[in-house]
Amino acid sequence: MWDCWRRHAESRSTECACRIAHVDAAPPRRRPQCILRRAVPDQSNDLHPRCMAESNLWAFPSNLQPKAERVRFDLASALQSVVMIRSEIPEDAFTAPILGAERFGNGVVIGDDGLVLTIGYLITEAESVWLTTNSGEVVPAHPLAFDFATGFGLVVPMGRLDAPALPRGSAAAIVPGDAVIVIGHGGRTHALDAEVFAKREFAGSWEYLLDEALFTTPAHPEWSGAALVGMDGRLLGIGSLFVQEALDDKVVRGNMFVPIDLLEPILHDLVTRGRAASKVRPWLGFYPGEDDEDRLVIGGLAPEGPAARAGLRSGDEVLEVAGKRVARLPELYRAIWRMGPPGTEVPLTILRDGARVHMLVRSADRSDFLKKPMLQ
Fold this sequence. Notes:
By secondary structure, this protein is mainly β. The chain folds into two domains: about 1-275, Thrombin, subunit H, CATH 2.40.10.120; about 285-370, Pdz3 Domain (Roll). The chain is about 10% helix and about 35% strand. It has seven helices and 19 strands. The strands form four sheets. The chain has a six-stranded antiparallel beta barrel.
């Protein structure tokens, strides 16, 4: 059984990896590789959790599954709170070449009305969404909101969803070494006893930055939208990535979770407006990353995005933003976002073929490139 699960997990984190970007965001010697890779839009249209719908017959070894007698909450109820999400996206959608036209993952019921919280890339530009409970009930749903800053997405069922709401907690007091449970759709056999191995800043190559993210191990092979649950039975975060990194002379494989604390300040706006009321960040439409020599190198460009229109190329090394040196991905993003709202011109200095080149990129609002939900 262990070998079967191990092969399953490895296949999920390689062949079925979600294709967003390679990430290199940690301090020296603690550099994670995100298996949300293949950011360049000329790749396959498959999305990693597609395997989820093809077979639900795998299971974690029993010694890795959480036991009801070892927790202080109703484990059975918590397991029922996680549903499967299946979404269909138009073939001509902006994100279809990157994320696929059919996407599968998890969602967590957080409201008595059936409101479901998930990771946003599962529902971005979706024209149809279905939710499946552990009992096999299938309910059509509507993609209500997606927040670019946090990565959270909200889905509202279009009928009664027979699944309990999972109470929300806080990750503020969580520290490395704390025991947690990662829950995917499918009941206890798809739930995993895990441990937090890091809590720190995270930068992704798709112009994404969290001041603090949670990293757990061992890895859950169906991480997208999975629930991170504390030992009090409360929701601590939503699964986003598979990561692997060198730590203390060994390779640690795990998952990155977006802390639930980021939801509370924006939840009302997401439900009532479809997006957070905070300032919209300028977007350049490029995929930079830190290479093995600690250079900021552009790995890909969004087709017809601001960076592509300005003449930036894959392989360009970013040196400066508005004349100020940037050495790491978080510095680069924060420097761009300080320039102003979408539409602001962002001066970049790059290194191309050994020569310094000054470029001016007129930023944009990322949402303007995306198809909107039909009911919004």
